[in-house]
Amino acid sequence: MFLEKIKSPGLAHLSYIIGANGLAAVIDPRRDVEIYEEIAAANNVRINCVFETHRNEDLVSGASLLADRTGANVYHGPNAAGEVRYAETVRDGQEMQLGDLRLKVMETPGHTDDSISIAVYDDASGKDAVAVFTGDALFIGDVGRTDFYPERAEEVAGLLYDSLQYMLGLGDQTILLPAHGAGSVCGSGMADREFSTLGHERQNNPRLQIADRDGFIKAKVAEHHYQPPYFRLMEQLNLSGTEPMHPEPVALNVEDIKSLGDQIARVDVRSAEAYAAAHLPDSLCVPEDMIPAFAGWLIEPEQRLVLIAENADQAWQAARHLGRIGFDNIEGYLVGIMDWVTAGEPFGSVDFLDTASVEQRLKQQSIDWQLLDVRGLEEVEAQPMQHALHIYVGELPAKLKELDIDKAYTVMCGSGQRAAIAASILERSGYKNVNVYLGSMAAWEQQKSVA
After folding, report:
1. Domain check: are 233 and 306 in the same one?
2. Is 399 within 8 Å of 359 (Cβ atoms)?
3. Which of 61, 131, 258, 445 could cross-link with 175 by S-S, CB 3.0 to 4.6 Å?
């Protein structure tokens, strides 16, 4: 018997392959599915079934691709918002056997109507569940979000409460195997570890400490979550299935970039600091490790893209991040910008401000200057910044009309990374006087503690 977890960085997506006696099942596969075949081959097993715990909103499922490549059956829960055309519907209590391993379906709606969990039993050793794949219903340190059905807010929160009680009935010994870890947009309070048991979560997970159903519903309805627009694309792709990931992007030179014209979106995936020092005009700053969190807010799925990267490896990883969320139209990449600069082409830069400069400007309170805070709402509520205007970075493109284009803006976030993304949005939209508070809230809090 074996169990392996596959983590997709950035998305903090966790998928699994479990097997015994020559057979294996894959749980919630990502789009680049080759890794599951490699693990299966290394363990001398055949993948004969694939489970989706729900119709994912934040990534493209690889279930249909894996079924095509291996001949495996795909299983999905009931009540999906549309027909999952490549999957068979399973119901509560259905079982699949992998030698001595037995996988039992549990209907656990709440996060989505079609959510299922899969309890794992070892028939050769005891009768109690060994583990449970919980999808997005239960995480380590948190539970699933329930905001996808706003017109049914109380109902679906209550469904999740019932599902969690059902799941906890598997016993405290049961190992918890969720579909996401810390950093995922699917929950805000996940612990920074990827191992736990139902017993530990029962005693320590804040949401599981709410003993009564009404209190749980009230707490869930009061939560605030952001929904990137690309979520709708993911839901549609995960009904019909998807095509394989595109090949790795090709290297481009300066003349290639120029020949592509102005209809190509230039996405700078280098660090925020590298972007600020010098960047191609009208380029969007989205550091490679932040692509999963923010590209879906800022890029249209059909847009043709050119990447500006430090090297080929970074460009390829960026393309992989984009492919996992369905963004395939990548024309190629440019390594750095020195070739661009030495060719005499124009470039831009963004100034950084330190804490002392921001503090001085706040004291002056000029009507021609505004501190713009692009952190999430929960961060702002926990650590408010006086006199700052708050617009979440993902929502900034849609809210530019709220800003005076003739003002000067200093952009801040938690550390300065998201602020650089926001600065690039402003710059591309014609704002001429924009800089970034490097260090941002982390530096501000440090200065306060020293003072």
Report:
1. no
2. no
3. 131
